[in-house]
């Protein structure tokens, strides 16, 4: 058993993660970042939950880019093949659940 206080987790570099659990072929990780990730497409679904901070999630659909503002408590769900990139607005902590080894 373990209690994790998200606000207390800080990485040494952007997108550092605390591995919380692996459930079958999925990982549950707490990420800390203060810099954008990279455009990517997961090889399976992804659930991205903002716990602390704010994130602009850029998504591309049919050649059009949209930006979704995510606040604490907001959940972003990407399905297999959805192109996206997270841009934090200052330091952010997010819980990410995705296929193990996903980009």
Instruction: Give the distance, in angstroms, between the N- and C-terminal Cα atoms.
Output: 28 Å
Radius of gyration: 13 Å
User: pLDDT average, as an integer?
Assistant: 95
Number of helices: 0
Q: Strand-and-helix sequence, N→C?
A: EEEEEEEEE
Helix content: under 10%
Shape designation: globular
Low-confidence parts lasting 5 or more residues at pLDDT below 50?
none
The largest sheet is: 5 strands, antiparallel
Q: What does the oligomeric state look like here?
A: single chain
Instruction: State the total count of DSSP E strands.
Output: 9
What proportion strand? over 45%
**Which structural class is indicated by helix and strand composition?**
mainly beta
Characterization of this structure:
The chain is built from no helices and 9 strands. The protein is an all-beta fold. Strand 1 and strand 2 form a beta hairpin. It is globular, with a radius of gyration of 13 Å. The protein starts with 15 loop residues before the first strand and ends with a strand. The model has no long low-confidence stretch (mean pLDDT 95).
């Amino acid at each position: 058993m373990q209690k994790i206080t998200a606000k207390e987790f800080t990485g040494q570099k952007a997108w550092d993660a605390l591995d919380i659990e692996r459930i079958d072929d999925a990982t549950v990780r707490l990420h800390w970042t203060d810099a954008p990730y990279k455009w990517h497409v997961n090889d399976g679904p992804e659930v991205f939950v903002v716990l602390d901070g704010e994130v602009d999630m850029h998504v591309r659909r049919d050649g059009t880019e949209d930006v979704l503002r995510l606040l604490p408590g907001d959940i972003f769900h990407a399905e297999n093949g959805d192109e996206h990139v997270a841009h934090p607005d200052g330091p952010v902590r997010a819980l990410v659940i995705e296929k193990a080894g996903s980009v």
